[in-house]
# Entry
Amino acid sequence: MGELAIEAVGLRKVFHSTSRRPGFAGALRSLVAPQRVTTVAVDDVSFGVPPGELLALLGPNGAGKSTTIKMLSGVLVPSGGRARVAGHVPHLDRQANARRIGAVFGQRTQLWWDLPALESFAMLRDIFKVDEAAYRRRLDELAGLLELSGFWQQRPRQMSLGQRVRCDLAAALLHDPPIIFLDEPTIGMDAVVKEQVREFIRYQTAERGRTIILTTHDMAEVSRLASRVVLINEGRVVYDGGLAELQKEYGSGWKVRVTFARDAVPSGLPGLVGTVGAEHLFAGTDPVAQRHLLRALLDRDDVEDLQAHGDDLEDIMAAVYRKRAAADR
Amino acid sequence: MSELRQAARIARTSALYEVLQPGRLAGAGAQLALQIFLTWCLWRALYDAVAASSGLDQGQAVSYAVLATLYGRLRGPDRDVAGDTVRQHIWSGSIVYWYLRPITPRRYHWLRAVGDQAYGLAWAAVTYAVCRALGLVGAPASAEAGALFGLTLLLGQIVLYYLLALVDVACFWTLRNFGVLAIVRLASSLFAGAIVPLWFFPGWFQAISSWLPFESSLHVPLSLYVGRIAPADAGRYVLVQAIWIVLLAVALRLAWRRADQQIVVQGG
# Structure
């Protein structure tokens, strides 16, 4: 394998804070003798991302995904371990690192809240010292992909969430970074805008060759965009591998739901596991058996309804966490 | 060239907030005009019964008070409305982007402050010219006093910048700075003589304020302007200002260094 675009080796982040005791007396006691609290947000996280790959970093809320991204993007200083982005330690030279990366944190905007988005773009052009011709070219391309021109004269405070995040995506790419960090970029969006943003992200890896780390809770997004996933739970990596392998290793198999016209199950069909009303459920783990069943069903003229299901990625994630927790005990 | 362009673009941000919104611009102008008029009326009325008080005659006191009102505009537009204070960025977590740009947060913060100050100065200069034309403010006591007014005003604004920047950076630890900011604002108005000239306060109060950094931002330059401090005595005040600038600059540098190392981003 060649040089990795992004590399995390034993990354660790510990936060220290003070905790206030409940009640008035507790608050007074906390003033005199504050309780120190230590939180390990990320513990020994290691993975690498080759150039041009889109990696989905997944996990439940509070798992350590965002903290990992903030260490890789150079915002947070790791408490331990090592991060390298494009061959450099990100937090040691944040300014040089900033030119190599772009980032969107879906719930926060980097646009100036009270200025038209176009003014924010011009501000970023000058901050990143992008020359005018390159800026015009990129802005035209981004405006075309994200359909920005209808609202880029507005201030972010007047925009919808979808409009604001699309402007944020453009802002993150104006300096043409080879590496992008996207932390829940589609959170709270409607289906149409979500699809547009997904297509935009896919384009950036497939056509532009950018390396992307994406965190999301949207499993349809993961299935659509990523071929490799890293699952994090309680600050630790619990799975790092291909999406297909994940489904194979932790999936529960296939399911087919069928409703027959005369409400009776024809004999000779394999894998029947149950019946609820007129609906009959077939299930199994062998994909060849599923194909045989589907072929047989499609040849029949008494099938009124047919639904084939693969594994739901959320169920698979839950299975991974359960199995790892059991293994740790 | 691109360095200059970058600096100019960042510096003009707060000014754009007002200039792009005519309503906000007109409101700021109307507020300043009303404040100056009321201040002028108040101090003229206060001096109706006496020719001089605490070493200031009516002309000096009115000029001092009107200039003190103008001084309030020197710090530029209120960024709170635009959601663009350091406290707001830290609280919302958008401070993260300050560390994802090829410019240090310290320099960005400084450029923004310089821009705000330049915009405020433009406002103050135009309003000063109007006040002079209308006879609301007298001329400097002498050419030398005018020059020293300019010098001490500049040094005083630098002192005030460092103080307010320290309050901003403190948000990296405290997350909110309402309390500290309220104290600094009150102290910077009271001990600077922005509410009432320090000459009207008792001696012990003047003695305390002479060693605090606030006095140098307003009281010293205005007292030089109206001739209450003689140019020959200005050296001591300039020295105190210089000492405060060095101390606060070192403190701010250390604070930024700590903040850059231990930044915590709110909300995951």
Observations:
- Chain A has a mean pLDDT of 88.
- The longest strand of chain A covers residues 35-49.
- Chain A has two domains: 6-247, 253-310.
- DSSP finds eleven helices and 13 strands in chain A.
